[in-house]
Design a protein that fits this description.
This protein has 148 residues and is mainly α. Keywords: Membrane, Transmembrane, Transmembrane helix.
């Protein structure tokens, strides 16, 4: 839930600042959404590296995927790179597309987490709300792509 709140609050604040100031680069919903997504992905990427949270993420990687620790590290790095890409107008669309694909690729971990034995530090959001959040994140990505 926290990533969704961050996305919505930052997007709204950036859009308000853009509307009040007319600053180029933040004067549209798509640009504001890109900033909201960037802050959200920086926040979520950080959890890939905090030892306690990291252990929970490693625990929800489906067993068919080798090297779960490496997968968690790589996805965290991809989230940081994507967040940076969202802030640069010339790379915004590519970054949004890549982050959208990353969300889709990571979704099986959410499904697995919903049915797996829970690690005490694993995310505890049930599958239905988690799916709704993912769809909202993908919608924000589409807004970013569409308006850029």
């Amino acid at each position: 839930m926290a990533p969704l709140v961050v996305l919505l609050v930052v997007t709204g604040l950036v859009r308000l600042i853009g509307w009040l100031t007319g600053l180029d680069g933040i004067d549209s919903w798509s640009a504001a959404t890109a900033y909201g997504l960037a802050v959200m992905f920086v926040m979520t990427s950080g959890t890939h590296f905090v030892p306690r949270r990291r252990a929970g993420f490693v625990a929800i990687v489906p067993p068919a995927i080798p090297a779960p620790g490496l997968v968690v590290t790589v996805t965290g790095v991809f989230e940081i790179a994507g967040a940076i890409g969202l802030l640069i107008p010339q790379t915004r669309v590519l970054a949004a597309v890549c982050l959208g694909l990353l969300l889709l690729v990571m979704f099986p971990a959410n499904v697995y987490a919903a049915g797996a034995q829970r690690h005490p530090n694993a995310p505890h959001t049930p599958l239905l709300p988690r799916t709704v959040y993912q769809l909202m994140f993908l919608a924000a990505i589409i807004v970013t792509i569409w308006g850029s």
